[in-house]
Amino acid sequence: MANAAILPGAVPAVSRRRQAGRFLVYAVVLAIGLALAFAPFLFPDVRAQEVAARICVFVVLVASYDLLIGYTGIVSFAHTMFFGLGAYGAAIALKAMGPGFDAIFFGGALGVLAAIVLAVLIGLLSLRVKAIFFAMVTLAAASVMMVLASQLSAITGGEDGMTFSVPRPFSPAQPLVTGEDGKALRLFGVALNGRVAHYYFVFVSSFLLFLVMMRIVASPLGTVLQAIRENEMRAEAIGYRVVAYRTAIFCIAAVIAALAGILRAVWLKYTGPDVVLSFDIMLDILLMVVIGGMGTLYGAVIGVAVMTLAQYYLKDVMAAGAAATADLPLLPDLLNPDRWLFWLGLVFILLVYFFPAGIAGTLMGKGGHK
Amino acid sequence: MMKTLSATFERFGGVMLLPVALALIAFLLIGRPSTWVTLTVAGLAMGMMIFLMASGLSLIFGLMDVLNFGHSAFVSFGAFIAASVLAFLGAWVSGGSAVLNIAALMAAIAAATAFGALAGWAFERVIVKPVYKDHLRQILITMGALIVADEIILTLWGGAPIPVPRPAVLTGSIVVGDVSIEIYRIFAFLLGLCVYVAMHFALNRTRIGLLVRAGVENREMVEALGFRIDRLFIAVFMAGSALAAMGGAMWAGYQSLITTAIGAEMMILVFIVVIIGGLGSIEGSLLGAILVGLMANYVAFLFPKMSLASNMILMMAILLWRPFGLKPAVKG
Questions:
Q1: B254 has pLDDT over 80
Q2: Which of B140, B143, B271 sits opposite A136 (nearest CB)?
Q3: CATH class of domain segment(s) A24-363
Q4: Percentage of chain A surpassing pLDDT 90?
Q5: Which pTM value belongs to this model?
Q6: What stretches of chain B show up as alpha helix (H) in DSSP?
Q7: Where are the domains of chain A?
Q8: Where in the sequence is the domain holding B109, given as residue range(s)?
Q9: Is pLDDT at A186 greater than 70 in this prediction?
Q10: Cβ contacts of B305 on chain A, cutoff 8 Å
Q11: Secondary structure of residue A212 in the 3-state scheme
């Protein structure tokens, strides 16, 4: 029996399937990456651009959350809080100082700084106790931040949020490359104006942040984090200071989330509790990371793409279903497009039961970790 | 010096002094006795209702190491079921007969509690049982269940706020001197107190209570002695869910207008209470709930904008002082 594995060239079936799965994951991630990279040319309409930009930002946000939940085994519900700090930092500065890159930089830096301070405080205070305590503390902290954002309406715009303008080079009226006729040069029928620059600002920043995270998980730090996830006591016994490492990764994830928040604010030209702070966003992140697969950053890409597309298309399918079952009791109500979270919740529960490793993890042959 | 100080502190009741201290500080800050009494009664009533919701969660965690993030779903269901029952019995509720008033209220609370117990049983079997001892998946799966439960509530009752009729006999307030106290608050406080006494008695004087307490302390040992902790756990889970639904029903009557956000609002307070009180002990839950209730009412009066943040700060301060809560039954 063992011969099969020893013979050169004879790869066991399981491992071959894993390899195929791994290639599939790489291919899908590459396809998503390429689609995002050329989104302004592939999908020129405004709505598709929104979807593409949302996917870019959420890949960063979800991957940074995966650093916590997937790589280190920390369950935090405060990730939207950091996301919101970045977004509000940039938004308030852009509103107060006028549209300019200095405002994005200054406000963003303040937001990131606030995120670091809060992350250190929460981390040192509660990362030494049980995972569950930590989850509850972060949940409470996030809700307080949400209340603060809606009550300090003089600064944050309250429930309505705030709109602001972004720097001039990002405006659709600003040509990026001027053609011979003095208008923006067209490439594949798409005008190379500020809107394209706006999108690529978001895309390139997201891409760089994603690369940074890939580097982090491949570094010795990433290995220590996985050791902590697998066996905390053992990691401590070997001589790694678990609390310090946990706090460090919590801060790193917070900073990246805040940076993603800046990108979101700059792209939307709007910041409000509903788009950056609300608990729904936190649920989205959680669903995305679990659907994609915890403990692999590729999973984050797949999860975000699947969820975001589902958010746009599932509703259409449900509307059709509701119309088809209009005569039956209760069913049309459940198929109402507003109830799509119900179905997503069911899918989520089933996933956690049967495929705890998510799409990418299952394909790549990683078992669910305890 | 420090030692004698803390010994003196323990002799006078230890952490149980905290609510008294809080009330005294608030008295100095508020300055008007009548306002202070009204706020204190409101705080105690609110604390008792939160205690109903929190005690079950605390025990469930203490006994089986299960943290149910879906606990607030029972609170919401309790509130909405109570609202529906009260609306259905509209004639009893608004009628002049005190007996029928009370009967309607009792029917509402009983319906909510019974539903909590049944749903708790189903929830434990279907959602929680497959993921014992796996915290990450527990948090995720109960979170998923919370989403589904919230959506079911939205489907059945819709998104608009629902008025909760309050029985005629419990409306209005008692006036003593220049102090006026809402009757419903007294009722909420007394009901909470009854539940606490019953729980205290059940845990400390009965054989099942003995097993629960032993299980909280050391589950393996109790199992090794031949007791089926998992069966006991179902009972505790059902009781905890039923209490949460009862708390939700009481809270619905207190608010008199409920929305689907009720679960999320209460969940934060319940978590804060459980963390402050320490996991696994009902005394801790009671203490935490009263602290949170008093704090919420005093601060809402003194510094309205700080209302929710104040409880958060309270929690942070207490965690710094006692990382496992004030009166934990389980440590670590």
A1: yes
A2: B271
A3: mainly alpha
A4: 14
A5: 0.79
A6: 2-11, 18-30, 33-64, 71-88, 90-94, 98-123, 135-157, 183-205, 207-217, 219-224, 229-255, 262-277, 282-302, 307-321
A7: 24-363
A8: 53-321
A9: no
A10: 151
A11: helix
